[in-house]
Design brief:
Layout: E1 3-8, E2 14-20, E3 28-32, H1 43-52, E4 57-61, H2 79-93, E5 99-104, H3 106-117, H4 119-125, E6 126-132, H5 148-166, H6 175-180, H7 182-189, H8 196-208, H9 211-216, H10 218-223, H11 227-231, E7 238-243, H12 251-260, E8 265-269, H13 276-279, H14 281-298
Parallel strand pairs: 3-4, 3-5, 5-6, 6-7, 7-8
Antiparallel strand pairs: 1-2, 2-4
Helix pairs in contact: 1-14, 2-3, 3-4
Amino acid sequence: MPEPTEVRLGDDVRLHVETTGPTDAEVTAVLLHGWTLDGRSWHRQLAALRETFGSVRVVTYDARGHGRSSCMALPTATLAQLGDDLAAVLDTVAPTGPVVLVGHSMGGMTIMEYAHRHPDHFSRRTAGLVFVSTTAEGHTHTVYGLSPRIARIIRLAETTGAGVLARCGAWRPPRALLRALRPSIRWMLFGDSCDATDIRLVTSAVARASLRSIGGFRASIGTQHRLATLTALAHLPAAALVGDRDRLTPPPCAQSIAAALPATELTVCPGAGHMLMMERPEEVNAALAGVLRRVLDDLPAGQRVLG
């Protein structure tokens, strides 16, 4: 069973963290969720890792303002702060040994921000990367599967609404409203098919996110550009995955990441949307396992962990 703990950050934000696996594991996998979601979005990967890599430690946590973590001051609702938070989580719950960082959407952008803001810390700790449905170019490629003209209108409405929500503080979205919005959530986040339990989990996660985090992170998510940061990480074992029906981070996002990291294994999943961990768990699990095996194989013989 996952072991819950709490990490208190320098600004008194409390992060809900869950760990599984031995505390003395030589390799730790850290799974970072997307915007408005929480650590539960990785439940299929957690089950697969427990079965296949029982001697690898696994860490998930809810980002500030999300899930069971506490809300925060509006100026800290930025990707830069999330990069700092990741460094603090590693120092607290996985202070030694190599780590494999796995990020979905905003989680992937958090990894890039961590690499940009803490390059020495990153280089000392990070041994592998997995990017799931994410981007290094903000909203450059995001047209929601629509014409560019309509996409511009939607983006204007979205960014305006985000500014309003960001000023609503720690309030959560009303569950009745979210139930009414399920068809829209399903259209935005999923591809050709969607399991009913997945849409319920996503809706539940959105209901736990504060309105400040739903609105506050939108600006930095839209403007981040970290391709130059990625080019310095080309030596790391890495994988990038995307669904060809992803309306938020479409295939060009993953393709540009793979171009910046030439050794990256790129997987495009036909018919899948933005929630690949749920829609295509086998592909995500295989990519994560491939990176973990490469990291484990590179360990000195006396330190090698057998999965």
